[in-house]
């Protein structure tokens, strides 16, 4: 019997990792992931979906790598303008982190004495950050910290807008449509990727221009557009978000999760094919 989701972790990451990505890996990538995962993970990438969140306390420098702050209401993203931390250090944002950890993983296959990187951590960071960059409010406005300072009610529950997109929409969809079973939610997304709604878009989602291994700037530009079109739209401080918001935004959540799963798998497939 499938387990219900009772683990307290960001559902956005759980859905992305849980059974989606590894189903789309080629043999070389699957072997590399198996090699890099710690033994206690039992070849299950989903078991470590929240690792990058948990290590913020051990690695405080990593906190800035989970998001991008863009100018309020411009609804555009520019790497040179936006990818920096609060101190102004360039490259310290989720897009820069994806580029960095992709580059690190491209060294896979070198001997331990030749390789200066912790590739297990690189894999876990990269996987998590590709999930983050597809959550629209991880590419949000500077003044509200990606919706983290916008207080709202999700039906009757007090929360913040960022949490609505990390968890509440997915949690409500699981309860209403999938009897709270994560695996059924995942299966619906997989079906849309492989044979249904999105199957003819997968190649376009996978592609990166100029034969790049990954293209996070493309994902970030999509993210701020989705944030403006869906996450922020018609929301103000104290808004009550109910069925109207939930049902109109759920397709955008499903789409971004599907894109994230496809692109994470495609990135890992390209990385380890080149190793």
- CA distance, first residue to last residue: 38 Å
β-strand percent reads: 5-15%
Assign the CATH superfamily.
P1 Nuclease
Overall form:
globular
CATH fold label: P1 Nuclease
Q: What does the radius of gyration come to?
A: 18 Å
| Average residue-wise pLDDT | 92
Low-confidence segments: 1-8
**Main β-sheet: number of strands, strand sense, barrel status?**
3 strands, mixed
Please count the beta strands (DSSP E, at least 2 residues each).
5
Helical residues, percent: 40-55%
CATH architecture call: Orthogonal Bundle
Structural class by helix and strand composition: mainly alpha
The overall number of domains is 1
Short description:
This protein has helices spanning about 10-15, 25-35, 50-55, 80, 95-105, 120-135, 160-175, 180-195, 200-205, 215-230, 245-275; strands at about 70, 140, 150-155, 155-160, 240. With about 280 residues, it is mostly helical.
Per-chain topology:
Blueprint: H1 11-17, H2 27-36, H3 51-54, E1 68-70, H4 79-82, H5 94-105, H6 119-134, E2 139-141, E3 151-154, E4 157-160, H7 161-177, H8 182-194, H9 202-206, H10 216-231, E5 240-241, H11 243-274
Parallel strand pairs: 1-2, 3-5
Antiparallel strand pairs: 3-4
Helix pairs in contact: 1-6, 1-11, 2-11, 5-6, 5-10, 6-11, 7-11, 8-11
Structure report:
With about 280 residues, the chain is mainly α. The chain has one domain (about 10-275): P1 Nuclease, CATH 1.10.575. It has helices spanning about 10-15, 25-35, 50-55, 80, 95-105, 120-135, 160-175, 180-195, 200-205, 215-230, 245-275; strands spanning about 70, 140, 150-155, 155-160, 240. The chain has a three-stranded mixed beta sheet. A hairpin with a 2-residue loop joins β3 (about 150-155) and β4. The longest helix is centred in the C-terminal third of the chain and has 32 residues, at about 245-275. The radius of gyration is 18 Å and the shape is globular. The protein starts with 10 loop residues before the first helix and ends with a helix. Mean pLDDT is about 90; it is low at about 1-10.
């Amino acid at each position: 019997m499938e387990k219900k989701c009772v683990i307290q972790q960001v559902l956005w990451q759980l859905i992305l990792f849980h059974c989606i990505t590894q189903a789309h890996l080629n043999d070389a990538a699957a072997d590399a992931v198996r090699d890099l995962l710690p033994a206690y993970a039992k070849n299950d990438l989903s078991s470590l979906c929240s690792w990058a969140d948990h290590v913020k306390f051990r690695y405080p420098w990593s906190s800035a790598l989970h998001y991008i702050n863009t100018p309020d209401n411009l609804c555009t993203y520019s790497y040179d303008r936006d990818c920096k931390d609060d101190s102004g250090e360039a490259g310290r944002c989720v897009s820069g982190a994806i580029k960095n950890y992709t580059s690190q993983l491209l060294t896979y296959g070198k001997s331990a004495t030749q390789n200066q990187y912790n590739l297990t951590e690189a894999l876990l960071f990269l996987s998590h950050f590709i999930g983050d960059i597809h959550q629209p409010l991880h590419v949000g406005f500077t003044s509200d910290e990606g919706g983290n300072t916008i207080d709202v009610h999700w039906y009757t529950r007090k929360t913040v807008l960022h949490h609505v997109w990390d968890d509440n929409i997915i949690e409500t969809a699981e309860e209403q449509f999938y009897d709270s079973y994560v695996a059924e939610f995942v299966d619906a997304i997989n079906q849309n990727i492989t044979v249904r709604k999105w199957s003819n878009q997968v190649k376009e989602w996978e592609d990166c221009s100029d034969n790049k291994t990954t293209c996070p700037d493309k994902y970030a530009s999509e993210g701020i557009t989705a944030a403006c079109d869906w996450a922020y739209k018609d929301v103000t401080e104290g808004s009550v978000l109910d069925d109207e918001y939930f049902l109109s935004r759920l397709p955008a959540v499903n789409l971004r999760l599907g894109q994230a799963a496809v692109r994470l798998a495609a990135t890992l497939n390209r990385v380890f094919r080149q190793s």
